[in-house]
Amino acid sequence: MTMRLSLALTLAATLALTVPAAHAGAPQAGLATALSAKKKHPRRHRAVRHGGQIACTAAGCQRVPPGCHPETEYDWNGIPTGFDMIVCGRRLR
Fold this sequence. Notes:
Layout: H1 2-23, H2 25-36, E1 54-57, E2 60-63, E3 68-74, E4 80-88
Antiparallel strand pairs: 1-2, 3-4
């Protein structure tokens, strides 16, 4: 008997809290207009430098820093290794 009474009280309390909120259209509309009235600022994008050179070295492919350039890497016999090396400074050729 007490379980039915507690279940009935819980159900009544739940209905009492949810029904007025469903029928109160004005406060919800006011909240929606307040949220939509918030100004939206466009996102600023950082200037991204596209392009540039990419060198595939023995350590992996990576961008060549400014002021540097890729050159073909050779082994001790003078045979190309198939990799690039990044050389910074002025060109000798």
